[in-house]
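Reposting from the mailing list since nobody answered there.

I have sequence plus structure tokens for a pair of proteins and want to know whether others read the tokens the same way I do. The first protein:
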Amino acid sequence: MFRKAVASEGSGRELSAIVDDVRKKGYDISGDVMKRPPRGYPTDHSRADLLRHRSLIAARPLGCEQWLHTSEAVDRVLSAAADLDALLMWLVRHVKRTA
């Protein structure tokens, strides 16, 4: 479901823009990435970099500063959650499986 959504023009472009925005906010995008796009997708696909992902991780270090032991920690964690909201909502809309 993930790859189908990435390959689709509408949802794929949306994810690409979201990933670019998350990177601009200082997050690294990583995960389990294959060497080339999976069978059935052209190697020159405009979103080949995203099609290669088996998992998609957005992360940035928060450090172990003094703020970690204060109420400021909650604000920083909530800020990080807000930064990733668009990515998480895209995944829910396009990849979520029902039990």
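The second protein, same order (residues first, tokens after):
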Amino acid sequence: MNIRPLLDTLGIQEDAARALADDLRTQITELQARLREAETHLEHLAITRKTVTALSGRLPAHPDSPDLPEHPDYPRILAVLNEATGPLRARDVCEALDHELLPKNIEGTRAKLKRLVKLDILNEVDAGSFTRNQ
């Protein structure tokens, strides 16, 4: 009986299994490195939270901070306009908020900007161009 073909087949399967094991070891090493990075980032965030919490009692109150409408975009819109070097259009703000540039999103952002103008938080310097009140 000739067992050579059987041994050759076993050799091919061993090589494939060895290659798979090597690939999995490489993936494990990469995942362990990523896990270490994530754990370090979590530690840094915990330290930051502790520091911010400790300092929060020392920060001055902002009685003149505007009462914003109940929507998560409003503080983000103000942050975008605070960092802007000039007037922004609704499309620019929408893009900065990572909203898809669809007409409904741009118009929704424009409506929010107009509402902030009515609340005297923003200025509309030109038709459709908005800045933060100084």
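Reply #1 (J.P.):
I read it the same way you do. The chain has a mean pLDDT of 90.
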